[in-house]
Amino acid sequence: MKMEQAVTIAGVEGSFTVQDGVIKVGNNKLPENAATTVNVTVTEPGHKPATATTTVPAKLKEAEAAVVKGTQDPTTGEVTYKVSKDAEGNQSYENGTSVTIVGVEGSFTVQDGVIKVGK
To answer: What is residue 75's three-state secondary structure?
Structure first.
């Protein structure tokens, strides 16, 4: 007979059942703005509760719609897209951000606010 372990996390609503040594906490239960160091308590029938300290990450926020403006090099056919968070192009996505384009195979990585497709 398998004994169930219950886990509670300070500041996170509810308790969680350990499955294969792991608990899963939904994004909607995480702290709003910042990662937090908290106490975690594990209880198992017939044992004293065990407490540990861990860092709980902040809730992931919904992405805003990207503004993408492209220009094509008439000689090579390569398209350079400026990818930004605002219509004016003043808030570029960070280097390393992954971008996918519907109808174009693969994903592209933002570098200095742009991605380049084709050649």
So the answer is: coil
CA angle 18/24/25 to nearest 5° reads: 125
Q: Kind of pairing, strands 114-117 and 107-109?
A: unpaired
Rounded-to-integer distance, Cα 26 and Cα 58, Å: 11
Q: Note the pLDDT tens digit of each residue in 19-51.
A: 888 899 999 998 888 888 999 999 988 899 999
Query: What Cα–Cα distance (Å) separates residue 54 from each residue in 23, 35, 59, 105?
Result: 13, 10, 16, 40
User: 62-80 b/e with 16+ CB inside 10 Å = b?
Assistant: eeeeeeeeeeeeeeeeebe
DSSP conformation letters of 23-55: ----GGGS-SSS-EEEEEEEE-TTS--EEEEEE
pTM of the model: 0.53
Residue 41 to residue 6: CA distance in whole angstroms: 8
